[in-house]
Amino acid sequence: MPLLNFHLLNLKDNLQPHTFLSNLHEADPSTKVIVASKPRHFVVKATTQDASILNKSWDLMLLLQGPNASLPSSLQKHISSSYSLPVGIPSKLLASYPEKNAQLIKEAPSAGLTGSLENPKMPDSSQKLELSPELLKFMEELMKEHDGPVTMLNLLKFKAGGKESYYQYGQHFIKVAGKRGGDAKIVGNVVSKDSDWNEISIVHYPSIKHFCDMLAGEDYQAINDEFRLPALEDTLLVCTTEFGVMGSKAKL
């Protein structure tokens, strides 16, 4: 299983993420950018696992494949803060990822909605992965700026015995998310001895509206209540929007 490096970064001096990505390619052409995106909104905040570090705004999320665990030293001067994890991603998934991701993006405009947003039940918070007034407001604001695909970052810490329950959730998720165009396009293990996170998943939705349509759906909340919530000791879920990146070079 290939080892990749996940990074959340804050950049100094108003450096633009696109510029940082170009500098990364110049400094280390051997590193492939698998995912590069802008974190937009915390849907679920971490409660115990590195919460004081993670629950703050970030400029850039990266998933990188290459021989070096650390970012090039020449780029460190541009980084004000960071959070990094080594993650193992199945080689078969990585090999098919560029083609699969391109297909997901191509199909996004034709993905359907179920009508769940017409009269949704809304608790005060989205912390249990339910549609909340705050999340609905974020949806409305983001749709004005970006009505295309969103990428959800998930970090997962399982309860004792919770991995099997989460596996069952994943099996049901394929159908429930799939009818809204959702797809868990990258799933892997966190392999750091210094971290208690167990897994990472990066999930595609055709738009933030499709994601919210899912959260508002009774079909999703049924599997959330039965399988997902009982499985997790802690989780982080952040909505991001990807930059135009494929392979090792940013498309600026």
TrEMBL record:
Domain of life: Eukaryota
Protein's name in the database: DUF1330 domain-containing protein
Higher taxonomy: Eukaryota, Fungi, Dikarya, Ascomycota, Pezizomycotina
